[in-house]
Amino acid sequence: MVLFFEMNGAWGQAQPPASNRPAAPAKPTAAAPARPPAVEPPAPPERLALIRSRGELAICIWPDYFAVSYRNPRNSELEGIDIDMARALANRLLVQPRFVDTNFAEFMDRLEAGSCDIAMTGVGISAARQQRVAFSKPYMTSAVYAVTTRESNRITRWDDIDTVGTVVAVAVGTLMEPLMRRSLKAAELLVVRPPRTLESEIQAGRADAFMSDFAYTRRMLSVHDWARVIEPPDRFGEALYAYALPRGDASWLAEVNNFLTVAKVDGTLARAGARHGLSAALVY
């Protein structure tokens, strides 16, 4: 038998084996330091407040868009329905307009990066674009038209467009690009990227026709005596046009929609459309 000493030094009776003794109470462990509560990053300032604080409205435009947002090569001045409307919006906000050149392949990148507050350049509404940008109420509509030359023997009517050996041009990033990819079965599609233009491809003989909307094709007739527009059947490719904004800013979208509502009532939109030959395309 194993004998055990008491702590006072007296002999004591044999203690039971360790396995039979009651367990000593566990020593309390130090509590882990409490983590500070997670701090949410501050919400970005609303776009409308930023615009007013800097006194400037940054507007994305495609400067080759006849009658909509066109930089006239004769004087380098901007003209078109959306130039007029952009200036009216800036005036409503009591700020200065600043136009940012872009194109339809890049304008959504610019909006997402914050380079522009809004795109006012005849932006057609599509499901794909709605995944990346917010749209205002529509203000214009258009079908898709063809432009060829008056001397062309290959294309004299709409049915001549989708034929073997025909080259059909579209501007990169426009609604016409996916539309014609789906529609053409026999003709070849040519996607035109800046600095080339649709009309230069026709004049250089690299394309037999190009596809565009009411605004662009009406202006072509007034500028180029070689151009001939072929009307589409059954409003082919018709789309609504609106202003594009960054997603997730309800107050900025509401302000733009309020501006459009007033512009449709007080004649601002009608005057801009008439000035640039687009009255027939307006949506009220």
UniProtKB/TrEMBL annotation:
**Which E.C. number(s) belong to this protein?**
4.2.1.51, 4.2.1.91
Output compositional bias ranges, type Low complexity.
22-33
Q: Which Gene3D superfamilies match?
A: Periplasmic binding protein-like II
Location within or outside the cell: Cell envelope
Q: Does the keyword Cell wall biogenesis/degradation apply?
A: no
Q: Does the keyword Membrane apply?
A: no
Q: Cellular component terms, GO, for this chain's entry?
A: cell envelope
Region ranges (Disordered): 13-45
Q: Write down the InterPro entries for this protein, in alphabetical order.
A: SBP_3_CS, Solute-binding_3/MltF_N
The cross-references to CDD domains, in alphabetical order and at most eight, read: PBP2_peptides_like
Q: Where is the composition biased (Pro residues)?
A: 34-45
| Keywords (A to Z) from UniProt | Lyase, Signal
GO molecular function annotation: arogenate dehydratase activity; prephenate dehydratase activity
Concerning SUPFAM superfamilies, the annotation shows:
Periplasmic binding protein-like II
Solute-binding protein family 3/N-terminal domain ranges (all copies): 56-280
| Primary residence | other
Q: Which PROSITE patterns match?
A: SBP_BACTERIAL_3
Q: Which family does it belong to?
A: Belongs to the bacterial solute-binding protein 3 family.
Cross-referenced PANTHER family: ARGININE-BINDING EXTRACELLULAR PROTEIN ARTP (PTHR35936:SF17), MEMBRANE-BOUND LYTIC MUREIN TRANSGLYCOSYLASE F (PTHR35936)
Q: What is this protein called?
A: Cyclohexadienyl dehydratase(EC)
